[in-house]
Amino acid sequence: MSAGSTLQASRVALRYPGAAQPVLADFDLDLAPGEIVSVLGPSGVGKSSLLRVLSGLQAPDAGTIAVDGAALDGVHPRLAIAFQNPALLPWLDLEGNVAFGLDFKRQPQLSRAERQARVDRAIAEVGLTHARHLRPAALSGGMAQRAALARCLARQPQVLLLDEPFGALDEVTRADMQALLVQIVADYRSAAVLVTHDIDEALLVSDRILLLGGAPARTIGEWRIDLPRPREDFVAELGRIRIEIVGTLRRATRPH
Amino acid sequence: MSVADQGRAPARMRVVTPGFGGRLAHAGLGLAGLALLLALWWAATDLLAAEGSFARRFSPGDALPALAALVTGPDLWTHVAVSLKRVLVGLGLALLAGVPLGLLIGASRLAEAAATPAFQFLRMISPLSWMPIAVLVFGVGDAPIYFLLAFAAVWPIVLNTAAGVRQLNPHWLLLSKSLAATGWETLTRVILPGILGHVLTGLRLAIGISWIVLVPCEMLGVQAGLGYFILDTRDRLAYEQLMAVILVIGVIGYLLDTGARAVIHRFAPGS
Questions:
Q1: Is A167 on the interface with B (CB under 8 A)?
Q2: What are the start-end ranges of the H helices in A188-234?
Q3: pTM
Q4: What is the pLDDT of residues A8-28, one digit of tens each?
Q5: Regarding the domain delimited by A1-78+158-256, which CATH topology (the fold level of the hierarchy) does it fall under?
């Protein structure tokens, strides 16, 4: 195990019961603190399955996952997962949604004041303090996804696991959310695994891109992006990586 | 929130609330309908029925003053209180049995497959058919009425609760799983609030059914309640009072339903 790794997966495989072949095979990941890794791949390749395994929602059939060197066994309080569907509870206001789960028995026990402080900070971080008493039905798509992120942040996660969280948003909102994600990871000294099928999104936010492909899915390419942010100033460099990624994808999907 | 953002959650439509004028016109039409009903009643008993015929005794001209007299006296209210208590107890029992049963059926395909034919069978038997058995088992008094009312009211609660569980947003359950919720936390913090609208809709249907079944139930073996009062007025040949009690039954039923609708609107808007 490498020093300074926060989430580590080694030789992870997943096969759904009754399926002819595994969804995932031999997946390795070594996530450094503060790092944003995008897992990129075509729709249906198994990205969401991978994230479920990394989050402890689903046990792998082979391989191990470790958080801070301790083997992951089920969901972990310092791993927070967000989906494309913000899954806000319509009977709670935004603040209630962000606080949701903090008082659960199997979560770290916090005093009422600590919980409130975390909720306040998380809501402020995503810029929704003005909307804290609104119900989800009154929130726009972007606001709802910010609220879902704040719900993750209130748990002060070591790792954010994000499954196409901005997939349903319009371009402008999406760009805002990508910038917010980078800021959040820095402010909370967290790390993130972002699952996406959008190459540009991966290029703009990630420190590293893993390309998943094939069946069963495995890592068919890896790119480290050591460019400062905002990345919009480095279109030429990003364009080169983009062409490599698309080329790798095409080779992987072409029949032999 | 746009429809696309909600994914598989049901899209909530923005209901355009009519203006004050629109609501006034709506209420006016409703009142006109009630006035027409009153006119038909009056026509049937006072215009169409022959002079001195039996039907004339049911005239609104006699019933409305009798209603005024009943409303100002103590008797009617005693019977109303007894009837309402029976309905409340029956509904309480139906909720206690129906919600857990609905949760089970909604959550388990096996339980649903096993229970559905039996429920459809039991549901279609008029609760009143069980009356002799209920009296044999529970004796004369309130107990068989509670049983019959609960038996009548439990089905809409079971079926609506089960439908609510099936329509729960799967993302909510995934969320609760990712937060390491215990079974109890998932039940009380996600499932029950998530199905509240469905349960209340079931309860509203159950209230309607209970109120309808109550009156015939009270016609056997009890000494109080609106059903008993109907028979009592008949035995005393007080037909104007009989009509007045019918009016009271209708008005209370209407108010119960309005109350149930208000509760749904307050606690589960949009369902």
A1: no
A2: 199-205
A3: 0.83
A4: 999 999 998 888 888 999 999
A5: Rossmann fold (3.40.50)
